[in-house]
Fold:
Amino acid sequence: MSDDLVQFLTAGDRTLNILFGSQSGNSEDLASKIGKQASSYGLESTVHDMGEVDAAALSGMKRVLIVCSTWGEGEQPDNAEDLWNAANGDSAPNLSSTNFSVCALGDTSYELFCESGKEWDKRFEELGGKRLLDRVDCDVDYDKPAASWAEMALPRMAAVDGEGLFQDDKVASIADFVSSGGSLQASAAPAPTSDDAGSKAVTQGGSDTQVFMHEGDRSLHILFGSQSGNAEGLAAKIGKRASAYGLDANVHDMDGFDVSTLSGMSRVLIVCSTWGEGEQPDNAEALWVAANSDGAPSLGHTHFSVCALGDTSYELFCESGKEWDKRFEDLGGTRLVDRIDCDVDYDAPSAIWTESVLAHMAAVDGNGTFQAEMVELIIEELQGGEDVAVDGDDGFVIPNLESEELQVNVQVFRYDCMDGERGTDEWACVLPGNMSVLQVLRTMKATEDGSLTFRDGPANDPCTVISVNGRNVLPGLTKISDIASSVNGSWKIVIEPLPGGEVIRDLVVDLSIHDIRRSSLKPWFHGATRDGREFSQGVIGSLASSEATEIHSIRDFTSSILVDSFSDVMPYNPSYVGPSNIISMWSRVTDPRTSEANRAEHMSSLSSMGGIKAETDLSSISRNGQLGMRISSHMLDAKTSVLRDGAFSDSRHGKHVWWYCWSVKMSGKVNDAVIYRQVLGPIGLIGNLFSGISARMILGFTRTGGRVFNGLLGMVAPPAGVGKMPKQFNTPVKNHHEVVAIYNEIGSGF
Structure:
């Protein structure tokens, strides 16, 4: 590559802003992948959640990629709604200096396919933005088209010079360079940040230690091998912390990492978990094989340390980390800090290791030589400027969070069990926006009314669920700025007890029914006899990692009480076991380790009248954010399985319901009377015009199982159609759940 092109790709502002609007997480994942690719093109990418972007900031962005999914019938995802409204408001920004392109994700089974992405594409153009690449509209199998779009979009974004002008003649040469295996990750100068600006000031006028910490090459490479995500999350935390030590951290996934580049790295940290019986995680396997091959690099100039994650219940505890530690030493690496082996509660020990190892890595000078005498000086320098002590649940420094203060009117439900009086108390307060609802209650109790009663505990205590502004939440995890409603410029939160239960006092509700329901179901696990793998300690059953992840994700929620509160049915159907128990049983049914007899027991409970068929409307669950969507998806799988096992195949009633619902699906009409006449055909249509059946249906039939004959309607309307109507209309719809269930199976329009 010519020197001119190198200069072009490293001069001036090289920032790339990637905005994602995501409902299920696909757009977010894709945006992150593109962000990682961008560094190969000399771009410093920042991935933004649309829910956290100020519309006014868009005008200052020279390069913007948008990855946006479409929710429901052509709607913006929840996290994109506010930004979309702002972009269409009177104060929408001028984007004449912005170069952009859009990747839209959608589903061709919906009429408004990729509508949100199309709207962003059109709106950016209307605001003056310059489209560098035509929008791509991706179906549910979006991987390949999205990858092709990224390969074309990134060289175009890289061809925007430091002044924000697109240089079309540079695109081909940039694309050729990257496709031939070249990368600007090492050579590109990082985009200046607020931290970098401070570093330069320190270098020019700071102490000798500060000058040392910011001179020469200060790169730190953190490699993670992760199966469940713990090692990846820890590596990211360490990367953020590294900047305090004057280090420029680069976090690398071991998957796809080139082992030959290790020899050019003077500072390397490895964070690696152990999978199964002492095996490398899937993403580390290929790199481990390469590091043990004949072509493994010499690490004579590399300083390293290893943090190993494991589980002491396994014989080969932290084996993968131990292997990496030994292998780096065998290849000539210099160990600066002894390896730490962490059990499942790894937060505190890994945090202590982090502070020690970063001080040692910072003591490696700009030429790659370790200066041992600088370690204590660096620690003292940081202690003089900030609190470095281990402080917080995860062992990392808790930053001083500053948030705008809000004038909040707090309204709390009160109930005195002694005299039976109930009402509300109101307090006008000035509170920081980042205060949790649980902290608000604690403050009210400490300063206003010591008799205020609520369930207290840790932030994620599953029993603390309450209702705030109509939403059921864990108050310790909910900030007032996220849930308060604005009324005439002031903020208001209404705090009430969890609906559907007996109030004991104030916000405390009797939760014993949840334990009673669970114990009555006996959701225990009985394992089947399976083939296993032979290990040194005997035969152990095995399970594919993807399968294990899926099984465990089904029951991955903090509070069963919160999950049950998502359902609109719970307060009105005492026989319903609730979504949390449905999910628990369904996870047992789908677990291949479950015995057939145990699986049959769980399916029997699921198909009972208090089981999945009692949940009449999954949309009440799915509207509760990511957790609600995931829970409703698994419940729909359970409902579909139950229905296919005979709910609609063993009776004349079932056939009526089936064909009635298919008529709605195929016609696209939702008027019950019109659809029912279509079910009966032309003769029935003509007959119903004179028989009064249409009138009885329009005025009598309800989706909630109400009576067909309301008052004297049955006496007034001619009875000519009696006998022609399916049973579901001649009698109260006791099995209404079947009607709704089949709608949910066919489509979500009911």
Notes: The mean pLDDT is 78. The first helix runs from residue 3 to 10. The longest strand covers residues 405-415. The two ends are 60 Å apart (CA to CA).
